[in-house]
Amino acid sequence: MDSDIIKLNKVNFYYGPTRALTDITMNFVKNKVTALIGPSGCGKSTLLRLLNRMNDLIDGTRVEGEILFEDKNIYASDVDSVEIRRKIGMVFQKPNPFPKTIYNNISYGPKLTGIGADNMDALVERSLRQAVLWDEVKDILNKSAMNLSGGQQQRLCIARALAMKPDVLLMDEPTSALDPISTAKIEELIEELKKDYTIIIVTHNMQQAARISDETAFFYIGNLVEYNKTEKIFTNPDVKQTEDYITGRFG
Amino acid sequence: MEERKHTSSHYEMELQEIKNNLIYLGALTENVIRLAMKSLTDRDTQMANKVIANDYEIDKMDKEIEEKCIKMLALRQPTAIDLRFITTAIKITGHLERIGDMAVNIAEKVVQLNEEPKLKPYIDLPHMSDMVEKMVAKALDSLIKRDLQIADEVRKIEQQVDDLNEQIFRELLTFMMEDSKSIHRALLIMHVSKNLERIADHAQGIADMVTYMITGENVRHLSTDAK
C-alpha cells in the first residue's frame, strides 16, 4: 500500500524578502520516484533542498509551514540537520567525487558517522553493487575516483549516498552533465533503487521525468500547479497550464 | 541475429508485454474465425451464439493494448524501430479487433441460416476460411519474426481470396436467378463470404504495417497511389 514518507503542509520559503515557494502542500510516497518539473525559477530545486535542510546553509532564508519526515517536523529545534541529511541523501547535478580513492569515497561518510565500522569492506561492496558500479571498479578500488568517466563518477556519488543507508534520495538533475548512455544507466538504476528507497528527482528533462517517475509535480513561479500520477500528467493533465508546459507551449 | 536489448530493462519489458498482448489477441481472433466457420458448416447455432457473446474479450484486449501503446508514446518517447513498432501495434490491434467483429457478423448470419434448410453444400467457403485463417496467422508470424518474406506471402494469398469471393458471388447469383426462394439464404451466404474477404483485407493491412515496421517504407495503398 502507498504510504507517505515526507509530508509538506503549507510550506512557504523566502530568500530574504522574496517568496520562492507559496503554500506548498504535498506528500511524497514511500518507494516511489517523484519528479519535480517546471521552468527555471519555478522553485523545484529550492523545494528539493528544503527536504534535507540544504537551504539552512544559505543566509537570509526562512521557512514557514511544516515539513514532516516520518511524521516529525525536520525544522523542529531539536532536530539535528546532519542526521536528517544522513537519512535523506542527495545527489547533485555534476558528479562531485572526493579527490580520494574509490574505496575512500564510499567509506568516508560512514566512518565519520560510525556506520558499518565493523565491516567497511562489505558496506563499500554493497553500496557499489547497488549503484551497479561494482563490476566496473572492483579491481581498482584503490585508484583515484577522479579517473572514472562522468557516468561512473555519478554512479559513485549515488553509491556514496547509499552507503549512509538513507531512506530517501534527493536527486538534483543527476544526468544533465552525462551522455545518453550514462543517462540510460542512471535511469535504469533509479528504477531499480526505488524498491528500497524513496526517490525525489528534479529534472529539466521532461522526457526523463516521464520515463522514470511514478508521480510528477509541476511547479510554476513558486506554486505547485499539478501533482498526480506521471501517466496522468503526461497523457491527460487536469490543468491547462501543465498541458501547455509539457507540450512546449510555454512562452 | 538476436536483437540487442535496451539498457532500460523496464522499457524492454514493456515493449515485450505489448508484443505478447498482440500475440494473444491474434490467437483469440484466429479462434473466433475458426469457431464462426465451424458453426456454419456444423449448423451449430449454440457455437455461433458463443462467438457473438465472447466478442467483449477481444474488445477488452484491443483497448488494453491501445492504452499501453499510448502510455509508451507519452512516457518512453520511443524512437526509430521502437516508434515504428508502437505505431504498428496501434494499427494492428485495430485490425484484429475488426476481424473479431467480422467473425461476429458471420456468426450472426449463421444463426439466421440455421433457421432454414441448407441451400447447398459448403465447399468453397471452408476453403476460403482456411486461406483467411492462414493469412491472419502468417501476418502475426511476420510480426513476431520480423520477416518480410512472410508478410509478402500474406499479400499473395489475399488476391486468391478476392478471386474466390468473386467466384462464390457468381455462383450464388445463379442460385438466386433460378429460384427466388433461395434469395434470402444466398444473400446471407454472400455476407459470410464478403466478411471473410474483409478479414483477408485486414490481414493484409497487418502485413503491410509489419513491412513498414521492418523497412520504414509505407507499402499501403500502393495500387491506389499509382492511379
Brief overview:
The complex is a heterodimer of chains A (251) and B (227). Chain A has helices spanning 44-50, 81-87, 102-113, 120-130, 134-137, 150-163, 180-193, 206-212, 230-235, 240-246; strands spanning 4-15, 18-29, 33-37, 61-69, 72-73, 88-91, 168-172, 198-202, 215-220, 223-229.
Tally of helical runs of chain B: 8
How would you characterize the largest beta sheet of chain B? none
Number of strands of chain B: 0
CATH superfamily of the domain at 4-96 and 166-246 in chain A: P-loop containing nucleotide triphosphate hydrolases
Q: Provide mean pLDDT of chain B, rounded.
A: 93
Provide the spatial order of strands within the biggest beta sheet of chain A: 6-7-8-3-9-10
| Envelope shape of chain B | elongated
Please identify the structural class of chain B as seen in this structure.
mainly alpha
Secondary-structure element series of chain B:
HHHHHHHH
- Number of distinct beta strands of chain A: 10
Instruction: Provide the domain count of chain B.
Output: 1
How do the helices and strands line up, and which of them pair or pack?
The complex is a heterodimer of chains A (251) and B (227).
Chain A: E1 4-15, E2 18-29, E3 33-37, H1 44-50, E4 61-69, E5 72-73, H2 81-87, E6 88-91, H3 102-113, H4 120-130, H5 134-137, H6 150-163, E7 168-172, H7 180-193, E8 198-202, H8 206-212, E9 215-220, E10 223-229, H9 230-235, H10 240-246
Helix pairs in contact in A: 3-4, 3-6, 4-6, 6-7
Chain B: H1 9-41, H2 45-53, H3 55-76, H4 80-113, H5 124-145, H6 148-178, H7 183-215, H8 222-226
Helix pairs in contact in B: 1-2, 1-3, 1-4, 1-5, 2-4, 3-4, 4-7, 5-6, 5-7, 6-7
